[in-house]
Amino acid sequence: MANLKVEIAGIEFKNPVLPAAGPPVRDAKAIKDCEEGGAGGIVTKTISTKAAPVPRPNMAVLNRARIVQMYNTVKNGKEQTLVKTAYRMDQGFINTELWTELPLEQWIEKELPSLNDLTVPLIVSVGYTPDDMKKIIPLLKEFDIDAIEFSTHYIEPGIITDIIKTIKSIMDVPVFPKLSPHHTDLLVSQAKEAEKAGADAIVAINSFGPTLHFDIYTRKPYMGSEFGFGWMSGPPIKPLAVRAVFDIARNVNIPVIGVGGISTGKDAIEHIMAGATIVGVCTQAIIEGKKAFGRIAREISEELDKMGFSSLEEIRGLYIKEMGAGQKVRIEGGIARLVEDKCTGCKLCERVCQYEAITMVKKEGIRHLLPEINGEKCAACGLCVSICPTDALYLEF
Ligand SMILES: Cc1cc2nc3c(=O)[nH]c(=O)nc-3n(C[C@H](O)[C@H](O)[C@H](O)COP(=O)(O)O)c2cc1C
To answer: Structure pTM?
Structure first.
């Protein structure tokens, strides 16, 4: 079994999968369920000076049909409709949950005290302004807190330094700023600014937006915010998050905590290879439940074993090492090729080819049709290769 132990700013985590701030860590009870579900550490829901005025409704999946599938079956001669719930979403999630709805006093008097017996590291998420920090941080000093994460979601860029210095002047604790992808071109400069100001790690990224999703029949938005705007999370933001992690990790010398679109061990490994030291998971744990943390950690270990790695250090930043200098951009040449015995004749490649380079043809001795690739027309765009469910196609240059 690969070793999943990892350390950031002197804090030891038994595995690198933590909840990211959100409903799965909304109070002490939920946090303990995350610990039981196998999380390697805890990040709380973001605490601020005032309870958040959270609009209703405030959470929606972007494509319910893909989460809940109805199908008909016949049992004892009777037709019945069954509902199958998938635990993995692929279409993303929208929310306008802001920060914690619990008042600061409740966190201080009830929730944090009941986390005394937590067996994994505790990172408290706070927001937002330096003045908020002056009120919140002194109250946190009495607790056994391993680090403070602060959200930059609702502040103007440019006050990160001020926030880090304010927190550090009050409490001797590792500080992790969490960056939002509102201005994707500012992520690296914000990370560098934070490193210079004494941040101990960077968390990237928060949810993406604002975005809009409404019902075309009623013209009512799915979110209860003013215009129905909300923040997107889940699988669709993974490439944005992985790019952010890669760009930040190769530009700063402090650890990166990768968050965004992680549903599986492979997703977590992609973040880690892009430069993350540990990862945060929110949307997947909302959909699957809190055992998601332990499952993802197990999958990381299994996948590392399969790939022949024995620790997280061996894969951390591997993509930066191998691709950090960029690759030579190919403009010409290349053709898609078929591995015949892997093909099931599903025709997906033929349907998606934008160059009409693929035709399904009959071949002696094979029951299904096989794609025939026209070398004159194939533009080596790669789409057929990426969509093939059985990896029967590859590009040759
Ligand atoms: C319903 C919901 C509530 C969230 N609340 C917070 C929050 O209070 N503070 C924060 O920093 N991020 C919050 N986030 C953002 C997540 O921590 C995370 O950065 C983002 O959702 C991307 O990760 P994911 O794709 O695994 O969900 C929230 C996300 C969701 C979906």
So the answer is: 0.95
Q: Count the Cβ atoms, other than its own, within 10 Å of residue 243.
A: 17
Give the Å distance between the CA of 200 and the centre of ligand 1. Answer: 21
Give the chain's domains with CATH numbers.
6-55+95-323 (3.20.20.70), 335-396 (3.30.70.20)
Judge whether residue 176 has pLDDT over 90: yes
pLDDT, tens digit, 9 for 90 and up, residues 178-229: 999 999 999 999 999 999 999 999 999 999 999 999 999 999 999 999 999 9
192's enclosing H/E stretch is helix 187-196
Residue 39: both structure tokens together: 């999380």
Q: Is 96 in the pocket of ligand 1 (CB under 6 A)?
A: no
- Which two three-digit tokens encode residue 274? 């892009």
Enclosing H/E stretch for 354: none
Report whether pLDDT(5) > 80.
yes
Atom of ligand 1 nearest to the CA of 93: 31
Strands (E), the chain: 6-8, 11-13, 17-19, 42-43, 59-61, 68-75, 78-85, 93-95, 122-126, 147-151, 175-179, 202-204, 208-212, 229-233, 256-259, 276-281, 335-338, 358-361, 370-373, 393-396
